[in-house]
Amino acid sequence: MDDRADDAGEAELNDRTCIVTRTAQPPEHLIRFVRGPDGAVVPDLRRRLPGRGAHVALSRASVDEAVRRKLFGRALKAEVLAAPDLGQMVDGLLAKSALGSLGLARKAGQLVTGATKTEAAVRTGRALLLVQASDAAADGLRKLDQARRAAAASRSEPAIAALRLFTADELGLALGGGNVIHAAILAGDAGSAAAKRMAALDKYRGESPGPVSGDAPFGRGETATAKLNDTGAPSERRSGQDEGRGIDPAQEAEA
Q: Could you tell me which residues belong to the region Disordered (predicted)?
């Protein structure tokens, strides 16, 4: 067989194979890395950088393992330097992308903030994804969780996902200032993009084993991105604070 055909077949396999788990996955479930001009391993989240790529599952644990086992050099067929904090670097890039997409969704009118507007969006079925601050107070979380489940029951659908990946300050900075404790992402191109990027960050951090769709819109019923605990409540990412000492909804900016 022609060597070039072998190389092409290997490249096609690598495009869909995690170098850590050796399992074939669709591109949206993988992070692409390339060798930079200085030999450093560079994450290519948009999958646009030139050169040979190495793919790792969308998981912080997988990226850390690839660094520990020095798998990037073998996959990229070159001498490379993978920074010890590469996993944290990827987390920062995914977080920046997610926060930026929330801002774009708000500008497009596809994101609402504040407990009242968020609850209305959830109850009327307009919300694709519920976004809550990691330092939110327990009473506000409980009220919206009830609304989320009631809306799902009324439509005989699974409840939409609820993610808690950022603090109120982080959400406020991304969305134009003020405390943002509760927000709902609505349907539309910008809203779907924001939901996908939030889900990707959630999956990377290990909160969810579910798929992140790169083709189909992130719609009602796609709750795989919110891992369920034994009670069926979403296991949201927290900041480590006691929920009872979270931010009061009265302090929240609403838009």
A: 206-255
Q: What span, in angstroms and rounded, lies between the C-alpha atoms of 62 and 239?
A: 23
Q: In what order do the strands lie in the sheet with 41-44?
A: 41-44, 30-35, 53-57
CA angle at 61 for the pair 67 and 94, rounded to the nearest 5°: 90
Confidence (pTM): 0.78
Domains for the chain: give ranges and CATH numbers. 3-85 (3.30.1230.10), 95-251 (3.30.1330.30)
Q: What is the DSSP letter of 252?
A: B
Query: What does the alpha-carbon distance between residue 102 and residue 58 come to, in Å, rounded to a whole number?
Result: 20
Tell me how far apart the alpha carbons of residues 219 and 188 are, in angstroms, rounded to a whole number. 10
Q: What is the DSSP letter of 44?
A: E
Output DSSP code: residue 159. P
What residues form DSSP beta bridges with 56? 31
Contact criterion met (CB below 8 Å) for 102 and 194: yes
**In the beta sheet, which residues pair with residue 39?**
none
Side-by-side strand order, sheet with 127-132: 111-113, 182-186, 127-132, 162-163
DSSP bridge pairs for 185: 111, 129
Q: Which secondary-structure segment (H or E) carries 201?
A: helix 189-204
Per-residue pLDDT of the chain (255 residues; tens, 9 = 90+): 444 444 444 444 445 799 999 999 999 899 999 999 999 999 999 999 999 999 999 999 999 999 999 999 999 999 999 999 999 999 999 999 999 999 999 999 999 999 999 999 999 999 999 999 999 999 999 999 999 999 999 999 999 999 999 999 999 999 987 889 999 999 999 999 999 999 999 999 985 433 343 333 333 333 333 332 332 333 333 333 333 345 554 455 555
3-state secondary structure of 232: coil
